[in-house]
Specification:
This protein has 473 residues and is an all-alpha fold. It folds into three domains: 181 residues, Growth Hormone, Chain: A (Up-down Bundle); 53 residues; 226 residues, Growth Hormone, Chain: A. The protein contains 21 helices and no strands. It is found in: Cell membrane.
């Protein structure tokens, strides 16, 4: 296989699947206005992509081995492109959310299939280049997403946020025959689709309950929550009894790894929801254009990229537990700094807080790199998939949680006669405080999870640590 073409396909795939996590945020206000969607429905434009991505990711990795790279990538790219086109032409909230679900399902297949190209098509030197390129593309997508979404929304219409995916898909499809093999892995185990459907359905119900909680905490809202928790409990029981559980028992018993998953979940619950609602706050309360609303978030990505190269030296000096702890506390400080000045309708006072959020997020890199180093090599793929899935899950649930806080506070202020803008700003401040509390809880947990010497095994070569560092996880 041609190494140059492989690297190009991997780079394009890394960029476009990450871009779809961030590009929508700046276009949400325009989407809501044109389609007459309320805040709860708008949250599902983001959650609808992230939850299927997280829920199907582990099973999708197994299916790559059973179906072959070319079949998996080809089907995933076609589905991703069709979802993008459907999203761009959507005339109702239901159609738009359905299109996002299709894209999320497709992304769950694309990511493990793309990563498998690094292992099968490249030698060790080229693989290192590929991992670096993957990281760079993720970082660029993270930095450009909100601004690009605002630019497209303001000058071309929000539909082009989704249409912009199509050129990437077409180029990758053209290059596919020269990069992806048709062979299947012999003896590949059967995917645990039943377990995946069970846990994904449970998570969807829990997210639905959280999204609906902000408007009116009635007894009816408890039904999806209880149903979702019941499905997740059923999944846990099945896992305990399964001969080959979806999550190997060795990983479950590894304190550092399970601790990393939990800390990463707390990080995402706090930060991801805030990022989703920030462009909305900037447009609604600060009166910024879509481009101006997304532009300040670039500071977070710039801070992440600036601090990340220094993380190995900091970790050597402080140890992974203190490095992650300090990082999460810095993130919390940044969130509180924005909360303190949120009543000021200007962008410059927010900039120091945004820089702190990015710098602190970069220091959480050991959540992935250190936890992957102490696991056994035979679990590398599953562990990487779990870390990726937990990141997407935390992002989806973060949007739901912070949205519930923001909606509840805004509804209370409106009942008091407050105007829409001030009411939204008050809810956003409450969301920042809740997010900071989650980061502090994660910092405390990190000290426990990473404490003491960990069992050391052969280092695992994976691109997951690079991916997470580019996102600040």
């Amino acid at each position: 296989m041609n190494a140059g073409r492989t690297l190009l396909v991997v780079a394009l795939g890394a960029f476009v699947t990450t871009l779809d996590n961030t590009i929508v945020a700046a276009g949400v206000p325009s989407i809501g206005h044109d389609l007459s969607l309320d805040l709860a429905t708008l949250q599902w434009v983001s959650i609808g992509y992230m939850l299927p991505f997280a829920g199907l990711l582990l099973a999708a990795g197994t299916l790559v081995d059973r179906w072959g790279q070319r079949g998996t990538l080809g089907g995933g790219l076609v589905a991703f492109g069709l979802g993008a086109v459907a999203g761009g032409f959507a005339t109702t909230g239901a159609l738009l959310i359905a299109a996002r679900v299709v894209q999320g399902l497709a992304a769950a297949f694309l990511v493990p299939a793309l990563l498998s190209l690094l292992r099968t098509n490249l030698d060790s030197r080229q693989r290192a280049i590929g991992a670096t390129l993957w990281t760079a593309c993720l970082a660029v997508a993270l930095a450009l997403g909100p601004t690009l979404g605002g630019l497209l929304s303001e000058y071309f219409g929000w539909s082009w946020i989704f249409f912009s995916n199509v050129p990437f898909v077409l180029v990758m499809l053209v290059l596919l025959p020269a990069t992806a093999g048709t062979g299947r892995v012999r003896g590949a185990r059967r995917p645990a689709l039943g377990a995946m459907v069970l846990v994904t359905a449970g998570l969807v119900l829990v997210a639905a309950a959280m999204v609906g909680l902000g408007d009116d905490a009635r007894l009816a809202e408890a039904a999806p929550l209880l149903g979702g928790l019941a499905l997740i409990a059923w999944f846990a029981v099945r896992e305990r009894r399964a001969r080959e559980p979806l999550v190997p028992r060795e990983l479950v018993r590894e304190r550092v790894f399970t601790g990393a998953l939990a800390v990463q979940l707390l990080w995402g619950l706090g930060v991801s929801g805030i990022f989703f609602f920030t462009p909305l706050l900037h447009q609604d309360s600060l009166g910024l254009s879509p481009v101006g609303a997304g532009l300040p978030l670039v500071l977070v990505a710039v801070a992440i990229m600036a601090v990340t190269p220094a993380v190995p030296r900091i970790m050597t000096r402080l140890g992974p537990h203190r490095t992650v702890c300090v990082g999460l506390l810095v993130v919390a400080l940044g969130l509180l700094a924005v909360a303190v000045i949120n009543h000021i309708p200007e962008v410059p006072p927010r900039m120091p807080g945004l820089l702190l959020i990015g710098a602190g997020s970069a220091l959480t890199t050991p959540l992935t790199s250190y936890s992957l180093e102490i696991i056994e090599e035979r679990h590398a793929g599953t562990a990487s998939g779990l870390l990726t899935a937990s990141r997407e899950l935390s992002s989806a649930m973060g949007v739901a949680l912070i949205g519930a806080v923001l909606t509840a506070v805004r509804a209370a202020r409106l009942d008091e006669g407050a105007l829409g803008g001030p009411a939204l700003a008050t809810g956003y401040t409450a969301g920042l405080i809740v997010a900071a509390a989650l980061e502090i809880a994660g910092a405390v947990l990190a000290l426990w999870a990473f404490r003491g010497p960990a069992r050391k095994v052969l280092p695992v070569v994976t691109t997951e640590s690079a991916e997470s560092s580019s996102r600040g996880e």
